[in-house]
């Protein structure tokens, strides 16, 4: 049965058609024109695809794999082995310094996507420091690192399908202090630790006949992700974007205000946070979420994940004994031993849940710190 509906959200209208398990969405993406119309077109098309995948429940972790192909200036894009099968660019126009791209996107959402069969994993955000503080002099944006962390947190909380932020800390992360990092992660119920360094916020002046003394400003950073169970670095990446700096050179700019974040430069930083969130999804979403036993009493176990992580009554989980150890070089080694014990979620709270042990005679072997994995055959 082919069913077509029109849905409007604010200024955004999506034409959605359902045909068996397939959906197609007609959506308009937008981007500010700065470097070139070609770059703005790519950004607008990526924005349209992101909106379509978010709306239909498709796996946004697959979007980074499409970016290389979207760089090509074409009207039709076809893919295989991806939930997005076809993109057709219907209209492209620029007005008011922005590029608008309207596209029809055919999507086949999978019921077995990683975010649909696992609980959300906790992230602890660390400080994003400025590598060259003197570059912040123009605008006095010395607090940009702290405010960037908050914007990244908001982006993850609103759009991530596989992660949620359990906290933001000013404690520096270090791979040389794995024990401290593991304790920090445990204190914040975080499976991963996310931090980085802002490496470039320098400005350049372009002299144009129509717009003299136009100031463009760089934004570049490095991203580091550590495993909270072992303290080792598991993912690194770098990002760079550029945005128009519309403020006077001698003015003070408060990076906590909407005035800054709606500016072309603020929007370029927000685009970086979205790319970071998508890359984290792509790299880590299919890693197993590892709820942990925090208490066991009279056959009832309590775990450190709950409603916000996607836990539901009746969920079945398998128990693994935590058998980690520290080797001769002082490096923590994470080890899990599979057991025959299964548990059923009996009561769900906001950030925790109570489980009933399905084999009561084995309940005495369960200890705080033991890990669980969600069974997929539900």
Automatic annotation (TrEMBL):
Domain of life: Bacteria
InterPro entries to which the protein is assigned, alphabetical: FlgT_C, FlgT_C_sf, FlgT_M, FlgT_N, FlgT_N_sf
Limits of the Flagellar assembly protein T C-terminal domain: 301-374
One Pfam family in the UniProt entry: FlgT_M
First and last residue of the signal peptide: 1-22
Keyword Signal in annotation: yes
Classification of source organism: Bacteria, Pseudomonadati, Pseudomonadota, Gammaproteobacteria, Vibrionales
Sequence ranges assigned to domain Flagellar assembly protein T N-terminal in this UniProt record: 23-109
The entry's keywords: Cell projection, Cilium, Flagellum, Signal
Gene3D superfamilies for this protein: ABC-type transport auxiliary lipoprotein component, FlgT, C-terminal domain, FlgT, N-terminal domain
Span of domain Flagellar assembly protein T middle: 113-255
Name under which the protein is recorded: Flagellar assembly protein FlgT
